[in-house]
From TrEMBL:
Residues 64-75 have a biased composition (Polar residues). This is DUF7455 domain-containing protein. Pfam families: DUF7455 (PF24254). Residues 52-63 have a biased composition (Basic and acidic residues). It comes from Sphaerisporangium album. Residues 11-64 form the DUF7455 domain. Residues 52-75 are annotated as: Disordered.
Length: 75
């Protein structure tokens, strides 16, 4: 065992916030094992405390501000 973290998969639409059930954009992998999923709102609320406890944070909330690219073949 190398001690390296396994790569985390991107969050998908089926991943839901553990607090409210909205789409999850933040994954907190806990040092003792397990993970918590949060929407952007609840993630912002809890992310500092989770980091202090040693959680590894995967934050994909920037996807919320992305605009879809237009398809140049569609006119």
């Amino acid at each position: 065992m190398t001690g390296a973290l396994a790569p985390t998969k991107p969050l998908a639409a089926v991943d839901r916030c553990d607090r409210c059930g909205a789409q999850a954009y933040i994954r907190a992998s806990l040092p003792m094992g397990g993970e918590l999923l949060f929407c952007a709102h609840h993630g912002r609320r809890h992310i500092s405390a989770l980091r202090e406890k040693g959680a590894d944070i995967q934050d994909e909330s920037a996807r919320l501000s992305e605009t879809p690219t237009s398809n140049p073949t569609e006119r």
